[in-house]
Write a structure and sequence with these properties.
This protein is an alpha+beta fold. It is built from seven helices and four strands, in the order H-H-H-H-H-E-E-E-E-H-H. It has a four-stranded antiparallel beta sheet, covered by helices on one side. The termini are far apart.
Length: about 160
C-alpha cells in the first residue's frame, strides 16, 4: 500500500480575518500593547497607528499563511533602500556614453554595414535625421531596440558594472 503524506492543516482564513478585524478596533495604546505581546518588545515610539496596524496584520498573516520564501527575502535585501534610489539613478546615468557630433557609429545587420553619423541635434542615417539611436535601430531592424545597446555603447552584461 502506498504511503500517504499528510501535510499541515490549511490555515483558517476566517480566524485570520477576525483577528485582523480586532486589530482595527484597537486604539494606538491597544496596538502598542499587542505589539509588545507579539514581538516581545515595545514598538518604536514614533510609529503611527496605521503602521502599527499594518505590521501586526502582516505578522498575523505570515504566522498563518507563511512568510516570504528565502529567495524573495534575498531579492528584497539586494534591492537596497528607497533612500538610495536617487543615487542609483545617478550612477545609471553615468553609464551612458557621451557622443560628440561628427562621430560615426557602425553596426552590421543582416550582412549589411550601417553607419550612423552623430549630429548636434540627433543622428543621421540614410539621408534622414532621427532624434534617437533607438529610432535608427528600429528603421534598420524593423523591431524595437535599445539604440545605445544595438550600436554597442552599453554593456552587454546586465551585472550593473559601469563603463
Amino acid at each position: 500500500m502506498p504511503r500517504v503524506k499528510i501535510g499541515p492543516t490549511p490555515p483558517d482564513r476566517k480566524t485570520l480575518d477576525v483577528e485582523i478585524a480586532r486589530l482595527r478596533d484597537l486604539d494606538v495604546g491597544g496596538l502598542r500593547n499587542r505589539w509588545h505581546t507579539v514581538f516581545g518588545q515595545r514598538p518604536p515610539p514614533h510609529l503611527p497607528r496605521h503602521l502599527l496596524f499594518r505590521v501586526l496584520a502582516y505578522q498575523f498573516q505570515a504566522d498563518q499563511l507563511g512568510d516570504l520564501d528565502g529567495e524573495s527575502e534575498r531579492t528584497l535585501d539586494r534591492s537596497g533602500s528607497p533612500e538610495n534610489a536617487g543615487q542609483r539613478a545617478v550612477d545609471l546615468s553615468r553609464r551612458t556614453v557621451n557622443l560628440r557630433p561628427g562621430t560615426t557609429l557602425g553596426r552590421e545587420w543582416n550582412g549589411r554595414m550601417h553607419r550612423v553619423a552623430v549630429l548636434a541635434d540627433g543622428f543621421a542615417w540614410n539621408g534622414k535625421t532621427y532624434p534617437s539611436l533607438s529610432k535608427v535601430a528600429f528603421e534598420i531592424t524593423g523591431t524595437r531596440w535599445n539604440g545605445p545597446k544595438f550600436f554597442g555603447l552599453r554593456d552587454k552584461s546586465s551585472n550593473g558594472s559601469s563603463q
